[in-house]
Design a protein that fits this description.
By secondary structure, the chain is mainly alpha-helical. Helix content is about 70%, strand content about 0%. The protein is built from twelve helices and no strands. The longest helix is centred in the middle third of the chain and has 24 residues, at about 135-160.
């Protein structure tokens, strides 16, 4: 009998998808922290790879290069403040519009109240104060989709169409204070608004009351079709 030849050696196993996802997350996390600390222009891909324990080929594979990595970081940074999935969950909840808006403000406020702010807040602050060529990505892929969800809540509360100018202003009144609360550095809040660090929940609750009262005022000033306008106070004839 002739001896059987040994089977050919098996090829080395390829990296699993889980390994690839872990590498991607590691690069994203390291890049986010470095961009938060130094900014986009002063952070090199080589520096990110060294800190992440990987190589430039991995950045190119997962993100298409430095620009693609930074744009992904921007979207993730905004998600750390308020996520699209979180807003969508609130929008689907069987709640009245005012309660949905209250939940949005509380969600953003909860991120602001964390003892250690996520790196995403610092990345967003840097991008808003000194916009790069990638600012449009942050607006288009993160801010606009989330704003559309909140816009629908505001339109429902005001009884107006989503494209009505009153809804645009109402959206600004909801989002701007909440986002400002989230991105202002903790040390500034501690000195300017000491009660925030002492009782952040109370501050967020009062912010929700403030915003909702303003929306109710807008509702009276911009009546929906078929709904009578709120009565106006008589004008003081002694004033011009």
């Amino acid at each position: 009998m002739t001896a059987r030849s040994p089977p050919p050696p098996r090829p080395a196993p390829r990296a699993t998808r889980a390994d690839g996802d872990a590498t991607r997350r590691q690069i994203l996390e390291v890049a986010g922290r470095l961009y938060a600390e130094k900014g986009f222009a002063r952070t090199t891909t080589k520096e990110i790879c060294a800190a992440a324990g990987t190589n430039i080929a991995a950045v190119n594979y997962h993100f298409g290069g430095k620009d693609g990595l930074y744009e992904t970081v921007l979207v993730e940074a905004h998600r750390q403040i308020v996520g699209l999935d979180e807003l969508a969950t609130i929008a689907r909840a069987p709640l009245e519009a005012r309660e949905k808006i209250r939940a949005v403000i509380r969600t953003v406020g909860a991120a602001a109240a964390k003892r250690e702010a996520p790196w995403g807040m610092r990345v967003v602050v840097r991008e808003l104060l000194a916009p790069t060529a990638h600012a449009d990505t942050l607006i288009r892929r993160a801010i606009v989709p989330e704003a559309q969800i909140v816009r629908a809540m505001v339109a429902e509360l005001l009884g107006l169409r989503p494209g009505d100018p009153g809804v645009d202003r109402g959206l600004a009144f909801v989002m701007m204070p909440a986002i400002a609360l989230a991105i202002v550095p903790k040390q500034v809040l501690a000195q300017v608004v000491p009660s925030f660090t002492a009782d952040p929940d109370a501050l967020v609750d009062d912010l929700a009351r403030y915003v909702l009262a303003g929306l109710e005022a807008l509702r009276g000033a911009h009546p929906a079709r078929g709904r009578p306008a709120a009565p106006r106070r008589p004008r003081n004839p002694t004033r011009g």
